[in-house]
Amino acid sequence: MSDNNRVIIFDTTLRDGEQSPGASMTRDEKLRIARQLEKMRVDVIEAGFAIASQGDFEAVKAIADTVRNSTICSLSRALDKDIDRAGEALRNANSGRIHTFIATSPIHMKYKLQMQPDQVVEQAVKAVARARNLMDDVEFSLEDASRSEFDFMCRIIEQVIDAGARTINIPDTVGYAVPQEFAATIARLIANIPNADKAIFSVHCHNDLGLAVANSLAAVSAGARQVECTVNGLGERAGNASLEEVVMAIRTRHDTLGVTTNIDSTQIVPASKLVSSVTGFPVQPNKAIVGANAFAHESGIHQDGMLKHRETYEIMTAESVGWHANRMVMGKHSGRNAFRTRLEELGTSVASEAELNDAFARFKDLADKKHEIFDEDLMALVSDTRASA
Ligand code: KIV
Ligand code: ZN
């Protein structure tokens, strides 16, 4: 990666996203999503965990065989059999990556792995070296990094970089980090590890405290140049950092963050709708960027402002993320100006100010009884006004 200000977008919807209870996907569904991710110009697609099942192996393989413009990655534990299976699934990839990981926090090493720290370092180095024999592009993750000891992380990272890892991922596996502290850790790691310049630092944040996007952006400010994320923020438990939020924050606040991505943002809403329909996980209406209300304006003051100048209440356009247009929701808070504009858009403009006032009064009456007023309601309301004139 030559451009030091470009953030690599690593999408793990098909791996961590699929770990959401109830979100499992078939091979063909994964392939459809992978094609959409490629169209969106995602840099790295984590297609699955090849050793997890025959189905996952086939999905990773089908994606590696088909998708040409994104790097295709498979997860593997730091075990020979996992790494070999990942390498096999990725054999035909135009650009493939093996992503191997081991836990580094005291709690995981003691209770889950039941291993001494020295053994963990040894296994990590061995895994990276084996993966490098199969593929040039190897990523290493320190699972539960945000609860790991700083000096131990420095030690293991220095050694896996020497063994050939080119991306070092610092996951906030349990969503425990807070932005300032996480950013400070990333900056200290980069400053203290002697061979840090040989690798790209990545982050992978979970959303247990609702801080996954904030932590990812803080890490970017501290020097991370890969963000792992998922469409609609899907993922284990409360999910992962949401791709659409990370990408649009980087785009919209370029003035402050100073970095870019290669994502075609107009493909975001189509990707969100596809992932939602495949997994059956609805997108909440007020979800940033991709929720149905993300660009809807209901209150009279907001609608009036929008009609005068879009930037009064919008920091990005609906079109820039793939919506067809912003939506003025006609409801009880809507004002006269929005009402008149919508009638004009519907080709049913009123004959006089008196008729407009009458129709507007009827509209407010109706809006008190109904949540949302549709175009058909407005048309009916105008003909009633005319009939009674
Ligand atoms: O959350 C996590 O730590 C992970 C790793 C396997 C990267 O998903
Ligand atoms: Zn994860």
TrEMBL record:
Sorted UniProt keywords: Acyltransferase, Amino-acid biosynthesis, Branched-chain amino acid biosynthesis, Cytoplasm, Leucine biosynthesis, Manganese, Metal-binding, Transferase
Known cofactor(s): Mn(2+)
Domain Pyruvate carboxyltransferase: 7-269
Residues that coordinate or bind Mn(2+): D16, H204, H206, N240
Cytoplasm among keywords: yes
Superkingdom of this protein's organism: Bacteria
GO MF terms, alphabetically ordered: 2-isopropylmalate synthase activity
Catalytic activity: 3-methyl-2-oxobutanoate + acetyl-CoA + H2O = (2S)-2-isopropylmalate + CoA + H(+)
Keyword Acetylation among record annotations: no
Pathway where this protein functions: Amino-acid biosynthesis; L-leucine biosynthesis; L-leucine from 3-methyl-2-oxobutanoate: step 1/4
Entry's transmembrane regions: none
EC number(s) stated in the UniProt entry for this protein: 2.3.3.13
Sequence similarity: Belongs to the alpha-IPM synthase/homocitrate synthase family. LeuA type 1 subfamily.
Subunit structure comment from the entry: Homodimer.
Main function: Catalyzes the condensation of the acetyl group of acetyl-CoA with 3-methyl-2-oxobutanoate (2-ketoisovalerate) to form 3-carboxy-3-hydroxy-4-methylpentanoate (2-isopropylmalate).
Protein name: 2-isopropylmalate synthase
Organism: Marinobacterium rhizophilum
Whole sequence portion shown: 1 to 389 of 513
